[in-house]
Amino acid sequence: MSDYKRDAVEFLQMVVAGDIEKAYEKHVDMKGKHHNSFCPAGFEGLKKGMIENDAQFPHKKITVKHVLGDDDLVSVHSHLVLKPGELELATTHLLKFENGRIVELWDMAMPVPKDLSNKDGMF
User: Fold this and answer.
1) Residue 43 — very low, low, confident or very high, per pLDDT cuts 50/70/90?
2) Dihedral (Cα; 21, 4, 37, 49), 10-degree rounding
């Protein structure tokens, strides 16, 4: 696994585990930007949203399903469980790296319905 792929996964796992400050210190260039429509611009706004999410869902879990890398871009497809059996998401994070740090981040999420019409599932 490339360094950027490993770092992308480690960043997401640290955030989900509640080690948000440490994840940002280790992996994020705070001058970068994100594209989450629920948080104010800038990584400081995203970090605040992640801290609030951690307070609301302190026992969440992430299971990484796929990691794709193309030079400085990494995509991580995962199963994020905020509340088991109640609120589960299929997520994709796209992270852009520069000089070993995350400089841009996109995230997309889709709820996992309790009754799936597709027998192949979401993962």
Assistant:
1) very high
2) -10
Question: How many other β-carbons are positioned within 10 Å of the β-carbon of residue 35?
Answer: 13
- Mean pLDDT within 27-52: 96
Contacts of 106 (CB under 8 A, 6+ apart): 34, 35, 36, 93, 94
Alpha-carbon Rg of the chain, whole angstroms?
14
- Residue-wise pLDDT for 21-39, tens only, equals 999 999 999 999 999 999 9
Continuous H helices in the chain: 3-16, 20-27, 43-56
Q: Are 60 and 71 in contact (CB under 8 A)?
A: no
Q: Is residue 89 within 8 Å of residue 109, measured between CB atoms?
A: yes
φ/ψ of 47, rounded to 5, equals -60, -45
Question: Which residues, including other chains, have CB under 8 Å from residue 44's CB and lie 6 or more apart?
Answer: 30
Q: At what angle do helices 20-27 and 43-56 cross, to 10 degrees?
A: 150
